[in-house]
Structures are given as structure tokens and as C-alpha cells.
Hints:
By secondary structure, the protein is mainly beta. The protein contains four helices and 17 strands. The strands form five sheets. The protein has a seven-stranded mixed β-barrel. Strands 10-11-13 form a three-stranded mixed beta sheet. Strands 1-2 form a two-stranded antiparallel ribbon.
Amino acid sequence: MIATIEHSSGSLKVDFLKPIDISMPLRAGEKNVNAWYRAPVRMEAVRLGDWVGDVNEGGSVNFRDIWFNPHAHGTHTETVWHISSEPVSINESLKQFFFLAELITITPESINNDNIITEEQLKKAIGYIDCEAVIIRTLPNDESKLTRQYSNTNPPYLHHQAAEFLKEKNIQHLLIDLPSVDREQDDGKLLAHHAFWNYPASTRINATITELIYVPNEIIDGKYLLNLQIASFENDAAPSKPVLYKII
């Protein structure tokens, strides 16, 4: 299904029959990605007296309770409520779902025992793009990211000046394949979050950050139409399913 999309930068043609899902699936147990010192995801059949919500145990339907944390257990999209006292839920903040996006690939720089995505790297990778979203894939990149246990590993992160640069470029939606744009242990400063959302000076209420995506190596850098799908949570963050469409 070839569709023509009218965008401020011009007409875009995409094939909606060829989606590229860059979200991580949520699964129970130790093989699910995990961060922020949380227990593994649990999915358990509901039990009410003699009735069980598991067809394999004789139940009429599968009916499970699920315990998970949006920030820790998979692809999620968050709003400024993640760092602010004002309750601006992701369901209230994100009202449009299609955006022109640029996919870039970066190897974080080793600086003082940290691996950091710098402002200079973003300037070289992005240049003079005209888009609403930036998707950052970090190297090395392999399927181990789908099951990685990030807690206490000091993963790579975004320098706050790099986040400031994205804000100045008016990038509304930042997507990254790391558990956070900020350092794992930073004494609660969350400098990159603050810089990207311009909080509290002049908060960008409708800007979002999506973390823990996974972009396979065969997907080439460049422009895509992004469909940023979220679960309708009245929370600072919700599980999300970003999907890319190649521009043809």
C-alpha cells in the first residue's frame, strides 16, 4: 500500500505494508531486558477458587496478571512528568503519532571511564536535517540488547550539551536504544532530561523521550516516517511501539 504524505518538507511516499518495528517485546522472566534494579517481569494466570486463567491448566481462557515497570522492562515513551511535579501524562502529552524522523548510528566516546554521546557527534551525524524526531542507534549493536541486564553496568548515555543541541534543533521526539539518556548514577541530576525538555525554564510539554528501542543493523541510516504508538497510560511513561516506514 503506497501512500503519499504531505509534509512541510515536501511530499513523502511510504509503503504501509512494510513496517519496521523498533520496539522490544515484553516477556516474562530473566530473558527480558531489565534496568533500574527491578525484578524480572511476571505474567501469572489469575486463580479464583477452582478457576484458573490458563487454558493449558483446564481454564476456558488465558487471563493473566502482569507485573512490570515501564522504565525498566522494555521500550517506553516518557514525558516531562518523569522529572517534574506537574502531572502531564504521556497520554495527554502525545496527541500526534506520525513524524518525519532521522535514524543515525553513533559509537559513544570513552570519556573518564564513561561512554558518552557528545554534542559534536550529533552535529556531525545530523547536520541540517529538517525533521521532528531523531532515532539514535549505538554501536556495538547486536541482539543481546533485547535481553541485556543493565543494572549496575553504567551504560552509555547522552551528554547534556548534546540534549541541549537537540532542543535547539527543535527535535520534538528523541528515541534511543539505551535505558536512559542520562548516566545511571548521577545523584538525581538528570541533566540530559532537563536539557531536552528545557525544564523548568520553558518546558516543552509535548516533547517526548523514548528509551530501550532496538534497531537491527540491516536498517540503514536516513529518513523514515515514524509512527510512535503508545499504550494509553495516565502516567509519566507508557510502553510504546515505534514503527518506521521507509521513504521511497
